[in-house]
Amino acid sequence: MAMMYISHDIAVIAEVAQRIGVVYAGNLVEFGDTLTIFPRPAHPNTIALMSAFPSLEGEQRRLRGPLGEPPDPLRPPSGYRFHPRCAFATQVCTAQMPPYEEIEPDHFVACWHPQPRRS
Ligand code: SF4
Question: pLDDT value at position 118?
């Protein structure tokens, strides 16, 4: 049996899901095994979501989320829809959707500039 759990609370997802799919403006932007993505998120939106929740056990830090506001679905931005909110966006992001690539086993990301992996 499989269950799909949909939430904005990525901390809860980490507790209940074996696999995670992060969606932005209707596009799947990162997907893979929970134990792979949580220590090493690569998509800027996933990183921003994780930065928006406090750690109950780790050090205190300033909470951050994605910049700005979600796009108007009737008039989405050109190129990759996340680019107005992304701190890593470049010219290519405003023009084209990135390819969906496997950056490590069972870890897929759609981003022109996936962030360095951390462990
Ligand atoms: S493709 Fe560009 S805008 Fe989209 S998440 Fe990656 S760096 Fe940011």
Answer: 57
